Amino acid sequence: MKLSLTLTALAAAKTASAADITPLVAGDLNSTLSALDSSVLDFNFISFGNAYYLQEDCPGYPEYDRSDGVPCWQTKCGVDSPPDTCFTGTLACQHGDDECAGNAAETCVKHLKPDFKDYMSFAYCYEASFPPSASEVSACASAIGLTTDDIDGCVNDADLMSSLQQTEGYATAQAAIPGTPTVILNGESMSSTRLMLRQVCKSFATLNPSADTPAGCSSSDAKQLRGSAASSSVL
């Protein structure tokens, strides 16, 4: 049985608090995704952050409201059959137009290059000096076999972009995340992302007690984790 691992957008990396997220993105998350492949891990990066579609019946309208507007939208729109107004109209991002543009670019790259090792490589590169220059975006795209024209073609396709953003938005609303980044392992928010690879390997061992140890999990760690799996929670 594969594990489900979801990362909500790297909004913090686009602000002055980038130092708070760097250990996760460049360290534990990167090492986990580098060590494991899609046969073990069903990974999804949702590049939506604390954005939401402004709602007339939510606090703060018509302005962005992080404290009350976002949770109102999550409650209203994270249901099985959300109202039609939930994912139409103005999409507002916590940190303004630059963040919205970055989210759109990363969402398009995921659409164009669905292998998580590809699109996360772009995300790491893109976020490294946010907002990136045109030449930096070109270099990030080229590293995974894309061009800026490929990305722009997706971003500027109104129907496609709307569909992709609605999908990301609905996933974000359903998760009811408290903020970004949030990492969700098998449906549960990780209380700590320290030693993420070890936690993921432990979860795999718990779900697949008879399976071979994944190549990315050290045999010594796997033995230790299997031994504690019955009495210890992953998260």
Describe the 3D structure.
The protein has 235 residues and is an alpha+beta fold. It has a domain at 191-229. The chain has nine helices and six strands, in the order βαββαβαααααββαα. The strands form two sheets. The protein has a four-stranded mixed β-sheet with strand order 2-1-5-6. Strands 3-4 form a two-stranded antiparallel ribbon. Strand 5 and strand 6 form a beta hairpin.
Q: Round the Cα radius of gyration to an integer and report it.
A: 18 Å
Overall pLDDT confidence: 85
The H/E string reads EHEEHEHHHHHEEHH
Helicity level, as a percent range?
40-55%
Strand content: 5-15%
User: Total strand count, please?
Assistant: 6
Which residues sit in consecutive blocks of at least 5 with pLDDT less than 50? 10-20, 222-235
Q: Give, in spatial order, the strands making up the sheet with the most strands.
A: 2-1-5-6
Put simply, the count of helices is 9
Largest sheet: 4 strands, mixed
Signal peptide: 1-18
Subcellular location: Secreted
GO molecular function: oxidoreductase activity, acting on a sulfur group of donors, disulfide as acceptor
Family: Belongs to the GILT family.
Name the features:
disordered C terminus, two-stranded antiparallel sheet, Interferon-induced_GILT, single chain, 235 residues, 9% strand, alpha+beta
Question: Quick recap of the structure?
Answer:
Residues 210-222 have a biased composition (Polar residues). This protein has helices at 18-35, 69-77, 97-112, 116-127, 134-142, 148-155, 158-175, 196-207, 219-229; strands spanning 3-8, 41-46, 52-53, 91-92, 183-185, 188-189.
